[in-house]
Structures are given as structure tokens and as C-alpha cells.
Amino acid sequence: MDMDRCEYLITARGWAHLQGVLDPAFVARLAIDTDLLYEKCRKVQIANGVDANMEGSAHHLAGLGTSLDEMLDPLPLKANIDRYFGGGKYVINTYSASLNPPGSKAYLAKPHRDIRAFTGDYRMMLNMLVLLDDFTETTGGTLFLSGSHNAPGAPPQEIFDSHAERLLGKAGDIVLFDSLLYHAAGSNRGYARRRALTIGFTRPWIKGQIDFPRYIDPKIASAMSAAARQLLGFDARVAASLEE
């Protein structure tokens, strides 16, 4: 998609759908690793008693030595993301996956926005939705309430139900959307998972949902490129001493 068109759509309706961004072979690798990482995350959820309404959700997936790390450098659609933030630096606030299994009643199915503070025209956060499976009427494409990123308050449920647009797309497509946009995972009426990666980018001074520099194994971190480390917040840490 032309960058001007992408920027206009994000500004006007809150989201832009870019088709065929990722190579099918790479998407297949991402999907396999996402399934494996989910099983690991699910065990932690169950062990800590936070598994209710969390089925199909996995969080903090960067820096674990899988193909998901390859999304960091080169970052897909980097020029579009740069433009969204006005050329300023940004970091990954969260790196998650939504597997949306059939019949799921997870929290993602409720209309929500991914940043609590309404900041109007000041852009604080951008979401990247990476389709790992086809989004269809049956498998439950994500629902977006276009224009809701411009409204301070939450829309009434009946407004969301009657006006939200369903995203239909192919594996390898990417959607960029303003994190103030109200959205929800569509109901999966199929027989298999409908998988996607969800990556949130924020201004570098916003606290991330996990401290990636401490979370990631030092051996894996040392092998990462400077660009990947910057995205993961290695250049935006809080000093721990007067010398630092």
C-alpha cells in the first residue's frame, strides 16, 4: 500500500490493512513456533491460577530464540511505523499472540482499546496485527470500530455490534492500527485455531509490559542486532546508579 494512503487510513478510520506482506514460508514457521510458545505460556497461566478466560492468549514472546525474533530486524513496515511516530524512536511494549480457538470466550472477545489514557492527536501507541492464518467469516476476523480512536469514551455495546467492521484477510497480511481504536476478536465458528501475532509499539519512555533486557537470556540478547535490541528497550533503560 502507498505510504500516504496507509497514513490517511490510520488517521481517518484508525486502521490500515496491508496485504501479502510476509513470505508464506516464513508465516508457516511463525505459526509453528507460536503454537509451541503458547503451550509454554499456558502452563505458566495454569500454575499461577490465571488461566480463566485466557485460553488462546500468550504474552512476552520476544527474545526466546524462535522465528518470532526475526520479526524484529528487519521490522516489517518499518517506514510506515516510523511515519506514525513522526520519525521519533519507539520500542516494543508487548509482543503477544492470539490463537482464538473455536468457541473461545477469552477476554480479547470483548470490545477494548489497548491503551487506557485518551491522548487525542498525540500518538502514544501503535498495534501491529500479523495474520498467521486466514481471517474469514467462519474463523472470526477481528472487529474494528472505525473512528473510535477519536472518541474519549467507550462505545455502547449496541453501537459496536452494529457498526464494527470485520477484518477478512490472508495469512501474511498485516494490519496497523491506532491503539486507541476499539476492537475485539471475532468468534471462531470453525474447527481450528485462527492465529495471529499482536505487537504493540510505544514511545520509548513508556513502561513496557515486561522488562525485556532482564527477561531475555543474555546469550540470546548478545546475538541480536543493534536494531532488535533498540526495539526491545535496551537503549531506553532506567539508570541504576549515579555513574550510569
Estimated helix fraction: 25-40%
Number of DSSP helical runs: 7
State the end-to-end distance.
43 Å
Contiguous runs where pLDDT drops below 50 for at least 5 residues: none
Describe this structure in words.
- With 244 residues, the protein is α+β, with helices and mostly antiparallel strands.
- It is built from seven helices and nine strands.
- The chain has a six-stranded antiparallel β-sheet with strand order 1-7-4-9-3-2, with helices on one face. It has a three-stranded antiparallel β-sheet with strand order 6-5-8, with no helix packed on it.
- The mean pLDDT is 94.
Short descriptors:
alpha+beta, 244 residues
Brief account:
The protein is α+β, with helices and mostly antiparallel strands. 26% of the residues lie in helices and 16% in strands. The protein has helices at 3-12, 24-47, 78-84, 157-163, 212-215, 218-222, 226-231; strands at residues 15-18, 57-58, 91-98, 125-131, 143-144, 165-166, 174-178, 183-184, 196-202.
Write the layout of secondary structure elements.
Blueprint: H1 3-12, E1 15-18, H2 24-47, E2 57-58, H3 78-84, E3 91-98, E4 125-131, E5 143-144, H4 157-163, E6 165-166, E7 174-178, E8 183-184, E9 196-202, H5 212-215, H6 218-222, H7 226-231
Antiparallel strand pairs: 1-7, 2-3, 3-9, 4-7, 4-9, 5-6, 5-8
